[in-house]
Design a protein that fits this description.
The protein is 32% helix and 27% strand. It is built from 7 helices and 7 strands, in the order βαββαββαβαααβα.
Length: 228
Amino acid sequence: MGFVANLSYLNIWCADFSEETMLARFGAFLGTVPVSAKRPGFTHLTVRAVDSFEAPVFEEDLRALPLHAGEILDLMKEHLHADVSYQVSCHWDLSVFDAAAGSPQSGPQALEIFCHGEEYDGGLWRESGHMEVCFGFEHLFTGHAGMLGVERRAGALPQGSEEARFFEAMAWPENLEKYQQMTRENIRKLLDWVERIEQAVPAQRVRLWSEGEENLEARLEDILAKRG
């Protein structure tokens, strides 16, 4: 769909994080990831050292044989230093509204997960957290064009035929209700995961945000509060 493709993120700062605890903390985090039932396992690992301008010191495409969290950690052990950053890719299952079918369709959505050593890239962790997640498109949790929630916003005009079909589908109350329910389910899955992360790692600070929302958490609460 052609709407603005803003992304959503989670940053986590740990209370006890060092080169010695880095793999244990990241391993505990990876154990919480709700990997896709349709595309299971971790599919890429990239290790960078010093800063983001340097070529990766290690890259592995694992799509042919995806690994579980323990196997990914075994690969990371070869590159354990305070000045490295690990990037892991996988998928999780979320629902997307199919305007043509008039119903939600569950499918794999990409996840990018990072773990930053405290000496990597001039202390990037101070801004981005020791661990960072790109959840994917913001609209999977906020809906398109501000049409969801108690405080509904003025809708945008469709840009192209695909968006026009989506707006036409949402003009039917039953489709809008399906879209609301689908989005609420995505939000609950997101918030449930964040809660598991906070239980699994000694999180000192957690920030949930997106590129298009001034206050993402308030927006999610607004959509969850809307019924009918």
